[in-house]
Design goal:
By secondary structure, the protein is an alpha+beta fold. The strands form nine sheets. Strands 10-8-9-6-5-13 form a six-stranded mixed sheet. Helix content is about 30%, strand content about 20%. It binds zinc ion (2 copies).
Length: about 775
């Protein structure tokens, strides 16, 4: 061989990407590439990024890979453009997900058992368990090349973090926006706590279950019944009234059933609800029916008698329609918002027939102590046996389930603490219009609609492992006070040392009531865990107790990125807190990714157990996987969301229609490499001025993992190892993809147009 061995390094003809990645990761580790890069950018214009905190009490799934990759792409890109991009990691540590995991470990379930186990020990275990998988998260984060400072993260369970959250709550309190109200809430009987609207919206499912048309016997007309329809037979023992529309036309019909002649009242438009032949005897307006009395449906319970109030009569209500059922609404004031409001207006009895565990109370004799959803069949049987069931049919409707434990939620009258977000809804809408959403539609439609239909934030949770609601109530006179700092808390009696702001320790602290000198104790509730994560722009810096002087340079974020489900989660809670506290949106640019779905097209989540292990995918062998790895997984963000799922290698199952990876036209049947090429072409077309904005995408088409992504090839040149960054527009999909996300107006662009040569120079990260 005449070739000198120091001129050319031996080149393997076999491409082994996992191995290449490992080498590059090792190189980064050795050279502290991330830390070094950050250090070199200090003093440059900042590009502020907020990391949405994951919960580390379970292993990360492949759906976490997607959003982490997107965050990384943008942060690297901006860093290469010359910005200083600090990336502080964080952990979401409180809340039901953690509690449920610990309940399972201990083999206990429900609040009674937790309390007999002991709150102190229970919470100690929650604290211990919550970071159990931190190491796995770190490993995955490193493996996919997501540069994030995980050595100095924020933890939502830290006293300092909680102190900031308290100070924010105090601001709401001082503004008169933190209040306690009796409201109908979506309530999880298993977890024993109400959920907020953004939590509920994550757990709707289509269910098919029997609905019933029930016969309410009129007092003054033997053999005549008012028909009412319901999909929730468990609310029937709580019935106190029947509502009709004043101007709706009702009819009385005669019908022979089971050899008996009976008369039924229902809306004329709803006659098709009747089974078999009938004769219309007369017509009347709803207001003519109002005031007529009927007998309680069940002979064992009389709520009028129990509460000493008038009940069981027909009344007018404006929410009654003839869209479904019989045009008569069965009213159970404790289990529906409209019902409750009507009950307030008419002073109907407010009496729970269901206990907080979702079981019937003792008054509901045949089913006392039993789960209300489980006895619905028995209720139907009872009604049938007593000749009060007109009809039973299967109905498909969308019903909310607990996003954590999958229990069917009940709408339930509950005393809850609220933040009056509706009072500044318009300010949120205004702030949102200044946010650049990618894709735009998410902000202009989905998020805007969400804000428009805003309801007050149901803040409190009747649970254990969470940020305690810092309100102390006087035992004697009921005066409330809200504590906004640790210094203020230390003025109370019985402050434990060391101070832990969690239950039950914080509950030992009492205050003298300023009004009557009585003793004030903390209310039992903790707060919604989403308030924790929504507070992170402030709490990660322990603002205002620290960093108050430089907070302006840390708020708002130039960029955040998470999955689409966060429009009702983190994107919202950031907005609701940020706008109230600072008057402006906490973020300028939001990059939203589609969710990765499982084979059945369902969202991946820990509680469903359908999470795909990213390691398996990242290390996979075999033809498909290799083919995929050649180009890396293709991440796609598209304007028409449902059209294309984000792809990851190993997840492509051509024979499973609807599976993650099955592609809709025009991409169906494409292999990964062809798809990547085609997406690139389409992306380029989409940038063509002639069709700009009408192309199918707002596209990010970027190859993962790091070997291909950021850092082309390490090259030896003049004795220095250089890492080349394919940055320019024409150099591969990464830059092409990132140009649509140029974040105009986010912050000054160090790079002027026409300077691409020099910019590329600057993008070269020279390492010793
Ligand atoms: Zn639950
Ligand atoms: Zn008092």
């Amino acid at each position: 061989m005449s070739v000198k061995s120091d001129m050319f390094l031996p080149v393997s003809t076999k491409l082994d990407l996992p191995e290449t990645e490992a080498r590059i990761l090792e190189f980064w580790r050795e050279t502290k590439a991330f830390e070094e890069g950050l250090k070199r950018r200090e003093g440059s214009p900042p590009f502020i990024f907020y990391e949405g905190p994951p919960t580390a009490n379970g292993l990360p799934g492949v759906h976490h890979v997607l959003s982490r990759m997107l965050k990384d792409i943008v942060c690297r890109y901006k860093s290469m453009c010359g910005f200083y991009v600090p990336r502080k990691g964080g952990w979401d540590t409180h809340g039901l997900p953690v509690e449920i995991a610990v309940e399972r470990e201990l083999g206990i379930s429900g609040k009674e058992q937790i309390e007999s186990f002991g709150i102190a020990e229970f919470n100690r275990r929650c604290r211990e368990s919550v970071l159990r998988y931190e190491a796995d998260w770190r490993r995955l984060t490193e493996r996919i090349g997501y540069w994030l400072d995980m050595d100095h993260p924020y933890f939502t369970f830290d006293n300092t973090y909680i102190e900031t959250v308290w100070s924010l709550l105090r601001k709401f309190w001082d503004g008169g926006l933190l209040y306690q109200g009796h409201k109908i809430v979506p309530y999880c009987p298993r977890c024993g706590t109400p959920l907020s609207s953004h939590e509920v919206s994550q757990g709707y499912e289509e269910v098919t279950e029997p609905s019933v048309t029930v016969k309410f016997a009129l007092e003054d007309e033997p053999g005549a019944f008012i028909l009412a329809w319901t999909t929730t037979p468990w609310t029937l023992p709580g019935n106190v009234a029947l509502a009709v529309g004043a101007d709706i036309v009702y009819v009385r019909v005669r019908q022979a059933r089971d050899g008996r002649e009976e008369r039924y009242y229902l809306a004329k438009e709803r006659l098709p609800q009747l089974e078999g032949e009938y004769t219309i005897e007369k017509e009347m307006k709803g207001r003519e029916l109002a005031g007529r009395r009927y007998r309680p449906l069940f002979d064992f319970i009389d709520l009028a008698e129990l509460a000493g109030k008038k009940a069981y009569y027909v009344c007018e209500a404006d929410f009654v329609t003839t869209e479904d059922g019989t045009g008569v609404v069965h009213t159970a004031v404790m289990y529906g918002e409209d019902d409750y409001q009507l009950g307030l207006k008419l002073d109907l009895p407010q009496h729970h027939t269901v206990d907080p565990q979702g079981r019937f109370t003792t008054e509901v004799k045949p089913w006392a102590g039993r789960n209300v959803k489980e006895v619905e069949k028995d209720i139907r049987e009872w009604l049938r046996g007593h000749g009060l069931l007109y009809r039973e049919e299967m109905t498909t409707h969308s019903y909310p389930f607990c996003w954590r434990c999958d229990t069917a939620l009940l709408y339930y009258a509950w005393k809850t603490w609220y933040i009056a977000t509706t009072r500044y809804r318009d300010r949120m809408l205004e702030a949102n219009r200044k946010v650049a959403w990618h894709p735009k539609e998410i902000g202009a439609n989905r998020f805007e609609n969400w804000l428009e239909s805003n309801v007050d934030w149901a803040l409190s949770r009747n649970r254990y492992w969470g940020t305690p609601l810092p309100i102390w109530r006087c035992e004697s006179c009921g005066q409330d006070r809200c504590i906004g700092s640790i210094a203020e808390l230390r003025k109370g009696q019985g402050v434990p040392d060391p101070l832990d702001l969690h239950r039950p320790h914080v509950d030992q602290i009492t205050f003298r009531c300023a009004k009557c000198d009585g003793t004030a104790r903390r209310v039992p509730e903790v707060i919604d865990v989403w308030f924790d994560s929504g507070s992170m722009p402030f709490a990660q810096w322990h603002y205002p107790f620290e960093n108050a002087d430089r907070f302006d340079s840390l708020y708002p974020a130039d960029f955040i990125s998470e999955g689409m489900d966060q429009t009702r989660g983190w994107f919202y809670t950031l907005m609701a807190i940020g706008v109230f506290v600072t008057g402006k949106s906490p973020y300028k640019h939001v990059l939203v990714n589609e969710l990765i779905l499982d084979k059945e097209g369902k969202k991946m989540s820990k509680s469903r157990g359908n999470v795909v292990d990213p390691d398996a995918i990242l290390n996979q062998r075999g033809a498909d996987a290799r083919n995929a790895q050649e180009h890396g997984p293709v991440l796609c963000l598209i304007r028409e969301y449902r059209r294309l799922r984000p792809l990851v290698p190993g997840a492509i199952e051509a024979d499973a229609p609807g599976s993650m990876g099955a592609l809709a036209p025009p991409y169906s049947g494409f292999g990964v490499s062809r798809l990547a090429r085609r997406l690139r072409v389409d992306a380029r077309r989409a940038r063509d001025p002639g069709i700009r904005g009408r192309g199918p995408f707002e596209l990010v088409c970027a190859p993962l993992p790091p070997a291909v992504l950021e850092i082309g090839r390490p090259r030896r040149q003049a004795g220095r190892l250089r890492y080349f960054v394919p940055l320019s527009r024409n150099r591969g999909p990464v830059a092409g993809a990132l140009h649509p996300l140029r974040f105009r107006g986010a912050s000054p662009e160090p790079r002027a147009s026409g300077e691409s040569r020099r910019a590329e120079e600057r993008a070269l990260v020279r390492l010793p």
